[in-house]
Predict the 3D structure of the following.
Amino acid sequence: MAGSPRRAAGRRLLLPLLCLFFQGATAILFAVFVRYNHETDAALWHWGNHSSAANEFYFRYPSFQDVHVMIFVGFGFLMAFLQRYGFSSVGFTFFLAAFALQWSTLIQGFLHAFHGGHIHVGVESMINADFCAGAVLISFGAVLGKTGPAQLLLMALLEVVLFGVNEFVLLGLLGVRVWAGLGVGWSVPGWGLLSSCVPPPQVRDAGGSMTIHTFGAYFGLVLSRVLYRPRLEKSKHRQGSVYHSDLFAMIGTIFLWIFWPSFNSAPTSLGDGQHRTALNTYYSLTSSTLSTFALSALVSRDGRLDMVHIQNAALAGGVVVGTSSEMMLTPFGALAAGFLAGMVSTLGPSLNQNSKSKTHVVSTTSMGCQGSWGPSWGSLWLGWPPMKLMEMGLLLKLPCLDYPSDSQCYEDQVYWEVPGEHEDTAQEPLRVEEPDTQA
Amino acid sequence: MAGSPRRAAGRRLLLPLLCLFFQGATAILFAVFVRYNHETDAALWHWGNHSSAANEFYFRYPSFQDVHVMIFVGFGFLMAFLQRYGFSSVGFTFFLAAFALQWSTLIQGFLHAFHGGHIHVGVESMINADFCAGAVLISFGAVLGKTGPAQLLLMALLEVVLFGVNEFVLLGLLGVRVWAGLGVGWSVPGWGLLSSCVPPPQVRDAGGSMTIHTFGAYFGLVLSRVLYRPRLEKSKHRQGSVYHSDLFAMIGTIFLWIFWPSFNSAPTSLGDGQHRTALNTYYSLTSSTLSTFALSALVSRDGRLDMVHIQNAALAGGVVVGTSSEMMLTPFGALAAGFLAGMVSTLGPSLNQNSKSKTHVVSTTSMGCQGSWGPSWGSLWLGWPPMKLMEMGLLLKLPCLDYPSDSQCYEDQVYWEVPGEHEDTAQEPLRVEEPDTQA
Amino acid sequence: MAGSPRRAAGRRLLLPLLCLFFQGATAILFAVFVRYNHETDAALWHWGNHSSAANEFYFRYPSFQDVHVMIFVGFGFLMAFLQRYGFSSVGFTFFLAAFALQWSTLIQGFLHAFHGGHIHVGVESMINADFCAGAVLISFGAVLGKTGPAQLLLMALLEVVLFGVNEFVLLGLLGVRVWAGLGVGWSVPGWGLLSSCVPPPQVRDAGGSMTIHTFGAYFGLVLSRVLYRPRLEKSKHRQGSVYHSDLFAMIGTIFLWIFWPSFNSAPTSLGDGQHRTALNTYYSLTSSTLSTFALSALVSRDGRLDMVHIQNAALAGGVVVGTSSEMMLTPFGALAAGFLAGMVSTLGPSLNQNSKSKTHVVSTTSMGCQGSWGPSWGSLWLGWPPMKLMEMGLLLKLPCLDYPSDSQCYEDQVYWEVPGEHEDTAQEPLRVEEPDTQA
């Protein structure tokens, strides 16, 4: 009780100070290192005597905007399924992704595109940064409802770095060309030559599913283990959805589903590769939807469909062909892959009866990944054994980070001004208490 | 009572079996017949020595994505206006469209683009398949709330075939060049030559409104007649909207309205034709909105606006210029057409006092069509007299298809796990009964 | 009491008559003056022997559609935060913007692109018209809840004219090249030559923020002063939000935020300029989001975040770089500008304790503007002193315009058929009374 006023003051300062510090540091790094690239710098572009119409903007920007919608609307509203956590789901998505976009521009730049002492930015780096933000949001989904904004900001800070380093390890040490999603022309400054008839210098993997989804899911699962709370029954009554919160979640689901072909095809090489990637993903998504509906009716007690399954279907079909969709997978291959992914992502979580709300988002992704790549993907993370990640994760349990107590989980009111007239649940006065889950 | 356990078991198996069977059959047909086209096949594209930037993807894909948003977000949420049918509206839209996309790729391919024993796919076939899914969803709107998922899947199966055959009849037998919407380059493999200065080989009609909207509406109306239930007053209390369900419906409405210029222009020939189609549709939509607001205030008892009218306005202005918007209609012509369409679609249903919820979506479309093409469109369906369609429709009344009883209509809980805490309506325990509307 | 039946009849006729008159007049003006431009006219385009792929449609239309989403979904749902004003927010946005698109095509055409007795239209005029609609909606935000549709229609009529004249004044009399947003090639008919390697004839300013946002905000603030109501405590209980109305508002917020790079870059010259504008805006938005979250936690009583601040963040970062984002601002410059804008737009309104719901939208914009351009922007409006505008505004207070009484403010039921079963608030019978706020 004695700590409460001190704590309220601390909370009032904690998030602002972290934000201002991180934003200040990022801005300074931008000032020193980040420069326009050949496509966005007035002098460089005009010096090259290009046609305006050949600027990469016209080939990448529509795809970028589709991905941008997925990150902010898709993930944000997908996680708004909880009855009293809509403000946090949409708001923290907004907050985390905005930070991750800046921070990953720096990290990815340093690791993959540091030339002449500078990071050069344009629509490619925008797409890459959005991809990294996607991984952060998948991890957010794994700890949904059990974390505060300061904790999440720190999580994003760490995860963006690990995400970049992981790509670097995969690319450099293992010699694998699977860094996908981050392969967009980092090493090819001359995209302005697009309009020439020369085929792209090399074919790259698409979608970055392996990097983004497995890393995001893996990081999230480890984090979820670190932040495990044995006494969450205290906030069990808020772990479900209400009618309209599920409809808000469907906004996110459907936008993710619609734009997944753009997500997988955004970073591919231009021409037939991008076209084929979009087409394959489109087919995979349609069949994963059908198998999800089939399995959802089958596994339920009385043949009724379950919104949680349907919301997962949005991810499985797109994730499963993430890496392979640029290849000559054939339309049939895409259908088959999507079908299996939908099955696995629906069957998987339902075998574990009480996993529903705990690992809502993540479950799909990791199941989808395991379903498609089998045991192989696990080996990709050799450099990042769970124990090391868990040590790092302990940092997130510092009591000063102001995370919710067990009885405050899944509740907007802890971090948001919530309007008084709630139509959803009875108004319960919320005690602000000391965090009861000590590290 | 004795039938209940048996029926529950049947329900649990019916939808999964149908899904798995249809998906399996579709996948096999894909394996045998569907191939990448010149723009999506790595070998064919590179053999052609094209510039990557000339790939049709960059000219069609942004329009495709707009259409994709209309189909899944637009139609899905437009139909979420019912107070207790949001899960079904959005979820079944998702389900039906995902199936229709695959199935119509096959049917349209067989009928319109079967060359050398194969169907060749790319962004054009994606647009065409989305258009056919639109027709299926218009029919779904006509039977909204009175059908189960298995029944709807069968409906989609039949309708996609009839939609394809109808185009074939219009094109082949009647010699009319109005198949629009499906005219996207089926017979023009060399879209890679886009960047050359040769004008497109022929000007085609745009938007496919006649095919899509009239067929969808017509099919839906016949179906609605076949599935007519005289005792629907049992679920009358659920036929209206609630405040937030109408707002969800506005999400669908507004997205349909915004992207209609893309819908009409997606399948046109490239260049001035596509540009003009989008422009004409844009003007038509603005004036149909104004006339809808004007008429809505005029026809109501006390000058108040009606959400049902406004939701219809999204369709009328775009539908009415669907076929003509590629022509040199003039901006004034577009305004005038839209204005009339908005008037007719608002006045029409209001003359029939109790038609509101029954034919919500469809009414607009058919009114819009009749308003613009007058008696002529009826004659297009000579080959498909209502009686024949109705015979076919009887198939959908097989009791094994597990459709809702009269008292279960307009209710998500029949087919969906619905969260327990409803903020909308009092919780009523729902008896699962035998269908009481026998064929 | 005696006036009620007369008034009901008046209301029933007022809006329809205004709509039909304005739409009729607009249509006639379209018939006389509006023609397809070089890019949309079949004869002109083919006469020029252009490649179809060089049509400006492919370079501008994706950006146009992003802007279109912002206007209708973004602004519409952003204003749906009030608990009982969602129908009006989304519906009147739809109505006003649909009218403004037509009317501003005429006004902007007469003032800026009247050649040979005709206004020539294409994707550029569509973008320009959407921009003007944006200004109208910002003003709508300033008088949200206190106006009726007839009054708003008249407001749009006046504002579109003043918006056009203001640009004309800035451009012609003051010789400033800041009319941005309206600079899209009005004087450059030969956009078809895009694919040539010649750099664009001149570099223009981007985004039109100065014109759109300051004009919209300024006009709205003056209007808000004219329509000031001293006794609004009568409807105070409806001035707040409820849980789900804030989530609907987040749909608008997030879509505005996502597409702001397209908004600022839509009217710029093609090539590196458009690319750089989108990139700068993207950075500015991310940092304004971080500073908004930081300041929101800081200024609140107990460190909790406030939805009103977050909803404002969507605007500040994009507005602040509206004019400068085409310049070589550097990525750091964009971050810094966005950071300051987020701070100012969060701190500003919070200093004025009771300004929250009154000037929700507008406050941000004007603060953002003042924050970035300081005292300079005020001088741009020399030609339009507040007093003149206020005289004009008196026209909007004519009692025949059927605006809501003080106790009817912020209530959908005055102008909309609202479904009977409200989950949000207790059902209160609404007396229709004579307007009690006489001019």
